Amino acid sequence: MLEEVVPDVRTLTADDLGIGVKAAAAASHASSSPDAPEIAADHPMIQEIIRLARISGGVILSGPPGTSKSFFAAAAAQVMTAGDKRRYRFVQFHASYQYEDFMLGFRPKDEGGFAYKEGPFLKLVLDADTDPDNTYVLVIDELSRADVGRVFGEALTYVERTKRELPFSIANGNEVKVPSNFVILATMNPFDRGVDEVDAAFERRFAKVTMDPDKELLDVILSDNGMDEALKTRVMGWFSRVNGLADKNAAAAVGHAYFSTASDEASLKDIWAYQLKYLVQRAFRRDESTRADLETAWNHIFAVSDSPSEEPIEAPQPEPEATA
Questions:
Q1: Is the pLDDT of residue 295 over 50?
Q2: In CATH, what number does 21-210 get?
Q3: CA-CA-CA-CA torsion for 278, 280, 284, 285, nearest 10 degrees?
Q4: pLDDT band for position 98 (50/70/90)?
Q5: Beta carbons within 10 angstroms of residue 271's beta carbon
Q6: Which residue has the higher pLDDT, 170 or 112?
């Protein structure tokens, strides 16, 4: 329509202007949240992660989905490296992730044959070793999704703070060391199947921080999104109710980040229809009564505005008097 009124007009998007999601992703943040807001370096959680990293050499953020684990890990990495992209990297573990992906593996060459290729761990370790005055950070998302013993290999022993700077041999026979200025920040869901293996591998090597659904942070999110106060109060009531059930059923935990786009009734209904409904169904698939109660409670969030307004009742008119 605009082009018909003004010929040769150029339409610019937020990304064209350098303020959209693509620009934010290129500038900072973990790959899972490129449009997340910036966070102050003096935030208490950031400072706690940095403090624990200095003590242990690594920190694991553990909690159910939607509790800002990746967000805080990414933010802490950027603060610790002063935003220098050469000094921090992000990787995501998954079931098929291996030593060859993480540490060292063969890759085909264009001219034929194979050559060794350094994985993100080895490359960052080598870079850190040549720059001892600066901190280097590797952020691992979904730590419990892979076989950590197989992925880390011989390095698993030497990421421990007390083993730093000790040389060890890797698969190609080269000798390396994990320097003291190298930090691992990892996230994991404590209900993943691989959690026991992760706990056994890292329980005395890294510090662990529990990330729970946070009602106060949800309040901030909804207020920042401009949600009506009455609607926000009802949403927070449901949030408290479902997370209260998580004490006995851990799968019921609903993180505050699920509501990052919630601003009004329409957005809330989308969040339920395409995300929360399935979480509730999965958590209570053997408890139909509780599932139904939670769905009813959710629908009550909208009951006030959805209920039809009552039409005013007019007073009966007196019968006209008969005329003679």
A1: yes
A2: 3.40.50.300
A3: -10
A4: very high
A5: 18
A6: 170
The answer to whether 177 and 165 have CB atoms below 8 angstroms apart is: yes
Residues 6+ apart with CB under 8 A from 112: none
Residue 201 CA to residue 90 CA, distance in Å, equals 21
Whether the CB-CB separation of 253 and 294 falls below 8 Å is answered with: no
Please give the angle made by the CA atoms of 120, 126 and 132, to the nearest 5 degrees: 125
Tokens of 167: 């040389």
Question: What's the pTM?
Answer: 0.80
Longest dimension (CA), the chain: 122
Calpha distance 280→194 (Å, rounded) = 23
* Domain chopping of the chain, boundaries: 21-210, 215-306
Residue 281: count other Cβ atoms within 10 Å of its Cβ: 13
Which tokens sit at 31?
């790959």
Kindly report, residue by residue over 38-81, the tens digit of the pLDDT.
Answer: 778 889 999 999 999 999 999 999 999 999 999 999 999 999 99
Torsion angle (degrees, nearest 10) of CA 93, 97, 102, 106: -160
Q: Which of 96, 92, 55, 56 is nearest to 74 (CA)?
A: 92
